[in-house]
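Memo to structure team: turn this sequence into C-alpha cells by end of day. - J.P.
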Amino acid sequence: MMIAEGASTPMPRIDPRAPRFNQGVVGVGALVAFVANAPLLVPVLGLLLAAGALLGPSANPLSILWRKAIVPGLKLGAPARLKDAAPVRFAQLVGFLFLAGASLAFVLSQAFVAWALTLVVAALALLAAVTDVCVGCEVYNLGRRLASRWTSSG
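Reply from structure team:
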C-alpha cells in the first residue's frame, strides 16, 4: 500500500488487470442484455459495480473471481505494477449510477432511456477493457488535479 501526500491512511492498490476484466464482463453483459432484450440483467450488472465502488475492490465479485480463479488458473504472475484503486472505484460508482438510472427507467416504462444508459456503460466499459482507457478514471484524476489547484491557490 502507498500513502498519499498529505493523507494519513494508506490508499488501496490493485492489480490493474482486474478492473479490465471487470470492465470486459460488464461491457459484454450490458451488450448481451440489450441484444437479448433482458432488462433484468441491467440491475445485476449495476450491483456488481456497486459492490466494488462502495465496498472496495476486495468486495467486488468479479475481482474476487479474477483473484481466486483466473489468476491462479491461467498461472498469471503478479502484475508489474499495482495501481491506485480510487479512480477505479469512482468509475465503478458512475457506472453503477448509470445502471441504477437505467433500472429505474425500465420500471417507469422508459425503455429507450434505459437502453441508452446501458449502452453508454457498455461502450465505456468495453473501451476500458480493450484499450485500458478508463474515462471514469480520467474524470476522477482531472477532478483531483482541479481540486488540488483550487485548494493550493486559496
